[in-house]
Amino acid sequence: MRWGKPDKGPERAKTTLSAQSVVTDAAVLRWGTVSTVKAPVQQIARFIAYHLDAGAARMDIFLDVPDADIARQLAHPKVRFHQCDDAFWADKPDKARESHQLRQVSNASLAYQGSDLDWLAHIDVDEFILSDQLLGEHLACVPADMAFARLQPVEMMASDDPARDPWSGPAQFKRTRKAAKQKKAALSEIYPTFGAYVPEGFISYTGGKNIVRTGFPRVRLGIHAMMHAGRKVSNGKVLETVHVGHAHAPDWETFQRHFEFRMTRGSYRKKTNGNMILNDVLKVLLEEEGLDGLRRFYDEMCRATPERLELLRRHDMLVTATLDLDRKVAQVFGQEAASR
């Protein structure tokens, strides 16, 4: 199989922002998250419990499908639920709710504009901020002339051992080739069939997420960028030892369940500014081999086999983290919530 290289889209105009004052004391610095969520209550509970345990001072959860029961079951003083019903959208532009990406951006920007936190991260319910120390300690050290901090992406791999649950035991994540400063040939070595066609070896995004300083006017909080007056803010610092761990396809069932949506409207879709190789690869596999072809792709790109873990480790592209989600849910919401 052969696929072409993607075209590069036009460069977006950039700008910088400078804060008038910054918090440099980790003990008083306050950070939080904003997310637009459509997920089962257990997944939302895990997401919330993990980040509260990590030190989040506030979490804004916009329920894309309104559900008063979820807000009631997961009520917490540091969590604000927003029901995205018709009344919620009534005073907002029609375009803001056209796609899930636009709804995410609209909601995140709304939370940013009213935030009293020092830093705000726009992340999804299947993402977990992984840090080698308290996140506030990293943020307190970000230079004052940096408007945001960049969290490098790592993608969760599916456990090859049914007895090893990544939600409670060690979870394996892969890094991008660029983050590990590896040559392109490394991808073909790690993923012999598909590595040359899947950017960075990731089936989801490769650009990471931002946690941004609050308080700037005219800011729009994108999915992967901070925007000011229509321009992309460029003065940010990469946090080398902080990652956003993306549980994009942690098992075959999840990959199958989201496949059609992601191919047409999600992360596997064709982009308007050029070709997307992954979309082409998956279409050809589906047409020529059906579900067996998709499974072959998933097994090579996502399964944490001992051989693949060793190859990733050898190329400094492996990150291991213990999420311990069920214990954290029990601690925050009670044992009954953890056993749902």
From TrEMBL:
Highest taxon of source: Bacteria
Source organism of this protein record: Pseudosulfitobacter koreensis
Name of this protein: Glycosyltransferase family 2 protein
A Pfam family this chain is assigned to: Glyco_tranf_2_4
